[in-house]
Amino acid sequence: MKIYQESLQLRERRRGFHLITAEVMQAFPHIREMKTGMCQVFIQHTSASLTINENADPTVRQDFEMYFSKTVPENDPEYIHNDEGPDDMPAHLKAALLGSSVMIPVCNGRFAFGTWQGIYLCEHRDHGGPRSLIITAWGE
Known about the structure:
Blueprint: E1 2-10, E2 16-19, H1 21-27, E3 36-43, E4 48-54, H2 58-71, H3 88-98, E5 101-107, E6 110-111, E7 117-123, E8 131-139
Antiparallel strand pairs: 1-8, 2-7, 3-5, 3-8, 4-7, 5-6
InterPro entries: UPF0047_YjbQ-like, YjbQ-like_sf
Organism: Chitinophaga oryziterrae
Family: Belongs to the UPF0047 family.
């Protein structure tokens, strides 16, 4: 079994759900060397998250943003933590709901996504800044 690991710094993006599959694949050429295995993509932040979902229709990503903005609203007077503004605590809650990593099977040197699947960077802050990922894969 081989283990590979790379870091990837994503450029700053506006709040929303952004496809980053191509960036992850480009930053991780080791995937082509694997016949079978698993790949974990981990985000090193508490106010952004990762998920796998629809990669074709951009309205899905718009609906994700609408849903999470309604579900976890800003300016809730019951929030205690608001050190960095009204989007701070909601960003932490959204990241907790979606999670900080995704796992993708590797088959014959490629990510084994289903039809229409891709990796989303879920940016929950208005100005979150660049985001750091750790990509780790293991297998044969």
